[in-house]
Write a structure and sequence with these properties.
This protein is of the alpha+beta class and 585 residues long. The protein is built from 23 helices and eight strands. InterPro entries: DUF2786, DUF7168.
Length: 585
């Protein structure tokens, strides 16, 4: 067993699994499935527990049950999620495979192997297992628990669903579901979860590696906010890696409410506060102001007026006497500091502004030739090739100093749709083509939009190509409706054929953008400007990290039947794109 495998990779896969579970859980909450399960557990037996922790555990148990319970067809929600997902990285692929191989087990905790690994023994098979975990305390050794274990390629396992200790009666009940040579069924999980919901359970002892909390306040108070806990950790003796984690956590927590909370705690921290606590609140608030301002500039939804909202809330609290005046003074000082810093950076990159503006003007001129009057595949990809040429020329005009001094911005682009469509599958290829980061927001009950984040010229190029691809779908869709395949069909078959054509067209456009991008990489790697391209990517990555955003992978919708000829027609249309035709400089 490769026990020396990179622990960081396993931790990354574990985080990927957790993100996927969180995304699926949101769908279950929205569908009402979890509420139905909880009602079945408590019908005629007991009230819902009053403690927040117990309620969270019960929701997690219900989620686990719904995710892994097979439907009439024999497939689980996890099965459907895996078949509909397209992993973008090796870590995501491993996470999906681990979820697909997950098994419900009853295990005994043998003891901790090291800071990251706990040894287990399967109570049914006798198998020795290694669990990737940093929280189970050494005092838990000897306890029996139930876990949903996901096997990792290293030989370790990641667990999902909450942990709870089983007494001998519960172990005996679980043993009734054991079958030689077969894993425990989900009927066992359902029985144990229902028993826990109705009668309660013993918690698994957890270790808290928060020495700074103890030093600061003597004990951990469950009423502490996330900001208070972060500040107490901040004043401890941290190495470089942990300090970076604290900065990332401060950015992730950034919101109007947490910023107001942080400034309020700063104002209340008096002379009797633990040494360094007031400075910790100030640093956290500084990071949050910067992060919120960066998100607003990047076009992240709901952040355009966030700092104004925070200023109003803090001023109101101070007026009401609920906050000290120092809270308002801190906020105003940090906001002014951010504005000054932003203006300095803009001045530092002024040398490249003129050239960037010229590139943007050329891109906008291309727009007049394509988007404003509609375009075919040939014209769209010819415009894309021209955009690639303009961006490459722009990169070569910059020096490393101006690149590293550049600021990033974002463009939020509304689609006018609430539902996803085949054209949306082009967005990852488009972002990669323009050296941008991209993500979607909204959908469902709110309008779907895309945010492209990067250097100014690259973002403008992404905005233009997004419009270009949308218009291309309209143009080619109308042409397909006039064609032989569509005209030979009726009713729902026509809708299926059009959808199939659009899926094929999206596949063709994405592939062609990928080909163009590969050609750009090959060309720039042989030119002196290649190092500047690497520097540009580093700038975008660094600025993107400052947004402190968390993303979830969205599971694809259930499969639809496609019309083979229509899909082939769309794919062929994409394959016939001619990137060098049509447009002149």
């Amino acid at each position: 067993m490769p026990l020396q495998a990179d622990i960081d990779t396993d931790l990354a896969v574990q985080e990927s699994i957790a993100r996927q579970i969180d995304g699926l859980a949101e769908r279950l909450v929205a569908s009402g499935a979890l509420l139905k399960t909880l009602r079945r557990w408590f019908a005629g037996h007991a009230d819902v527990p009053e403690s927040d922790g117990a309620r969270v555990d019960l929701v997690a148990m219900a989620t686990d049950l719904e995710l892994f319970a097979p439907s009439i067809s024999g497939r689980t929600m996890i099965d459907r999620h895996r078949s509909g997902s397209r992993p973008q990285t090796e870590v995501e692929r491993q996470g999906l495979e681990a979820l697909g191989a997950a098994q419900f087990r009853v295990v005994k905790i043998v003891g901790r192997e090291d800071a990251n690994v706990v040894r287990l023994e399967d109570r049914v098979t006798g198998e020795s297992l290694l669990l990737l975990d940093t929280y189970i305390a050494p005092e838990a050794a000897g306890l029996t628990t139930a876990m949903r274990l996901c096997p990792l390629t290293s030989g370790r396992h990641a667990h999902i669903a909450p942990l709870f200790a089983l007494d001998e009666a519960m172990v005996a009940a679980a043993a009734k579901f054991a079958r030689p040579g077969r894993p425990l069924s989900d009927r066992c999980a359902a029985s144990l979860y229902r028993d826990v919901a109705r009668h309660g359970c013993l918690p698994i002892p957890q270790q808290v590696d928060e020495a700074a909390l103890i030093d600061a306040i003597g004990e951990v108070d469950e009423r502490m906010t996330a900001v208070e806990i972060l500040a107490c950790r901040w004043i401890g003796d941290h190495g470089a890696d942990e300090a970076a984690d604290l900065v990332l956590e401060a950015r992730r927590l950034a919101s109007v409410d947490t910023l107001v909370d942080t400034c309020g705690h700063f104002g209340q921290a008096g002379a009797d506060a633990p040494q360094g606590l007031k400075a910790a609140f100030e640093r956290i608030a500084e990071l949050q102001v910067e992060t919120i301002a960066q998100r607003a500039r990047a076009g992240v939804g709901g952040h355009a007026d966030a700092l104004d909202e925070a200023a109003t809330a803090i001023a109101d609290f101070v007026t009401q006497g609920a906050m000290q005046a120092g809270a308002r003074e801190l906020f105003e000082r940090l906001r002014a500091r951010w504005a000054f810093s932003a203006s300095e950076r803009a001045a530092a990159s002024a040398s490249s502004v003129a050239e960037t503006d010229r590139v943007i003007q050329r891109i906008q001129a291309l727009r007049a030739k394509t988007v404003d009057r509609g375009c075919t595949e040939d014209e769209a990809m010819a415009a894309a090739a021209k955009v690639a040429e303009l961006l490459d020329r722009h990169d070569l005009t910059l020096d490393e100093v101006s690149v590293r001094g550049s600021t990033c911005e974002g463009a939020s682009i509304a689609t006018g749709r609430k539902r996803r469509a085949p054209v949306d599958s082009c967005m990852p290829s488009l972002a990669e083509f323009c050296d941008c980061r991209a993500w979607s927001e909204g959908g469902g009950d709110s309008a779907l939009r895309y945010v492209f984040f990067g250097l100014k010229a690259d973002v403008e190029a992404a905005r233009f190509l997004h419009e270009l691809i949308e218009v291309t779908f309209e143009t080619e869709g109308m042409a397909f409706r006039r064609g032989e395949i569509y005209q030979s069909l009726r009713g729902g078959d026509r809708r299926t054929a059009l959808y199939s054509f659009q899926v094929g067209l999206a596949s063709g456009i994405s592939a062609k953008l990928g080909t163009l991008k590969a050609a750009r990489r090959s060309s720039t790697s042989r030119r002196p400007g290649f190092d500047l391209v690497v520097a540009k990517h580093a700038v975008v990555d660094d600025e993107f990290a400052k947004l402190g955003l968390d993303f979830i992978s969205r599971a694809a919708r259930s499969r639809r039947y496609v019309h083979g000829d229509a899909y082939a027609a769309g794919k062929a249309a994409g394959a016939l794109f001619e990137p060098n035709a049509g447009l002149s400089g």
